[in-house]
Design brief:
The chain is α+β, with helices and mostly antiparallel strands. The chain has helices at residues 24-34, 44-49, 59-66, 68-74; strands at 14-22, 80-87, 99-111, 116-125, 128-139. It has one domain (6-139): Thiol Ester Dehydrase, Chain A.
């Protein structure tokens, strides 16, 4: 995939949306890779015991998965120069069926001097907005 040219991008352009399916096995794999083995991410009884509705996805997994909308659009993860977000709701991952996070993005700012675009992401799981003020800045050609 070719990196978009700055001249071909406009404020308001929408990136192709992406659905990220998350299952319990995904969380166990992420726990092993990230070394974040907090039981709220894989032990249903424990998660409910501490007041959660069920097992929840790792925040960093959700954040990292969401930015793939941008990296797929720009064609190179190395072009992301900054990325930040707030976690607004947990992604609850039931045993049966898992959970889907739907991520979309829109270009909100262009900087011709640095050849950069700012993309605001929206990530929802069901009716819940799970990330707030999710902004990625990417270098374009």
């Amino acid at each position: 995939m070719a990196v978009p040219a700055l001249a071909s991008v406009a404020v308001g352009d929408e990136l192709p949306p992406k659905t990220i399916h998350i299952e319990r096995a995904t969380l166990v794999q992420y726990a092993g890779a990230s070394l974040d083995r907090n039981r709220i991410h894989w032990d249903e009884r424990f998660a409910k015991g501490v007041g959660l509705p069920d097992v929840i996805a790792h925040g960093m997994f959700t954040m990292g998965s969401a930015v793939t909308v941008v990296t797929e659009w720009v064609g190179d993860a190395g072009r992301v120069t900054s990325y930040s977000t707030r976690f607004t709701k947990p992604v609850v991952v039931p045993y049966d069926g898992g959970a889907d996070v739907v991520v979309s993005g829109v270009v909100t700012r262009l900087d011709p001097e640095s050849h950069a675009a700012t993309v605001e992401l929206t990530a929802r799981c069901g009716e819940d907005k799970v990330l707030g003020r999710a902004l990625a800045v990417v270098r374009l050609d």
